[in-house]
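Hi all, posting the design record for the shared folder.

TITLE: backbone redesign
STEP: 1 of 1
STRUCTURE INPUT:
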């Protein structure tokens, strides 16, 4: 059913709902009432026509729920991991790209090598849920192969991801 104007307090929508039911569509009375009696139909809920209800409270968003926040932070990741000199995100032979995925709206991302040296920092404050890392440091120099620690800091908590990457040497002779 599509509503083009505001009717009966409903917001205009193109949403469609399809239901499969095991019971044939027809008038039904849970009591022993006469379903063909006009007076009884007026008094009956939905005029004895089938009525289905559903509840979406179990899938509604929650706020300030520590367990849910912890599980959301666990979804943050980096792909591909491990990185073996190539990913599907790269468009040219000079590209080196990995994606940090499932990021919250606001977060600070710090990337360190195993000796604890800060490699790169990002401040994210947009609704996009991923961030492309070009595998370069703060001064635009490609990183070395190895293991890196990625620290994502949010208002809800922190997440640390370990990432392994093998870099390919740039071959400028084969272009």
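Okay, here is what came back for every position:
SEQUENCE:
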């Amino acid at each position: 059913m599509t509503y083009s104007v505001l009717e009966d307090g409903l917001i205009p929508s193109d949403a469609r709902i399809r239901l499969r039911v095991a019971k044939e569509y027809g008038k039904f009375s849970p009591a022993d009432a006469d379903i063909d009696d006009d007076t009884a139909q007026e008094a009956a809920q939905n005029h004895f026509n089938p009525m289905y209800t559903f509840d979406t409270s179990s899938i509604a968003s929650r706020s300030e729920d520590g367990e849910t926040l912890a599980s959301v932070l666990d979804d943050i990741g980096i792909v591909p991991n491990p990185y073996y000199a190539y990913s599907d995100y790269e468009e040219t032979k000079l590209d080196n790209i990995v994606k940090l995925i499932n990021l919250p709206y606001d977060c600070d991302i710090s990337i360190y090598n195993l000796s604890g040296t800060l490699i790169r920092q990002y401040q994210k404050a947009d609704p996009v849920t991923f961030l492309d890392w070009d595998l370069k440091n703060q001064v635009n120099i490609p990183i070395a192969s190895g293991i890196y620690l990625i620290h994502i800091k949010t208002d809800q908590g922190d997440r640390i991801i370990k990432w392994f990457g093998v870099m390919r040497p740039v071959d400028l002779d084969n272009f």
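COMMENT: The mean pLDDT is 79.
Let me know if anyone wants the other runs.
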